[in-house]
Predict the 3D structure of the following.
Amino acid sequence: MDLTPILPRQRSRQLALLLLAFGCACLLAPAASAAASASAAASASASAEEPRFTWPLHPRPQLVRGFDPPVTDYGPGHRGVDLAAADGQQTLSAGTGYVVFAGTIAGRGVVSIDHDGGLRTTYEPLVPQVAAGDQVYSGQVIGTVTAGHPECAVAVCLHWGVRRGLEYLDPLPLVRETTRLRLKPWDPG
């Protein structure tokens, strides 16, 4: 019995099946990779928006003006919150990070801090007490508030902003509220 014509056919079928499997894998891999990337981005986004910061002023400040995101990138809006303060009041870093800017912009003192998760907090107007490159910790003094925020409805306030990349976020949901724990009397008997 001559098997030579059968072997090339089997090899052709095996090669065709192999090419078909490889082609499907190539077509499905980008979709699976994109789905995995989207899932990772969504979970990173969710974890980045969990409460993680403390108030930049102590005691807890009064909110003077809330966050009002612009409809377009360069449209009107309020890209942060205004918090009532006293002239000379200490401004605290809302979280651990690295100072990326400490200086004057348009005549006002500004400090910007990069935090993990791609978040950047900005504080103004203030007299900076840190320098670019400094590592800061949550609650550490970074400057003192000064009068001069033109949109402030009270005598002195701190403008506090948060953004991730180019997207401005409302800082208030990111503030971790402290919980008071109280011990109750224990009666073992």
Q: What stands out?
A: The first strand starts at residue 63 and ends at 65. The two ends are 96 Å apart (CA to CA). Residues 18-48 have pLDDT under 50 and may be disordered. Helices lie at 6-48.
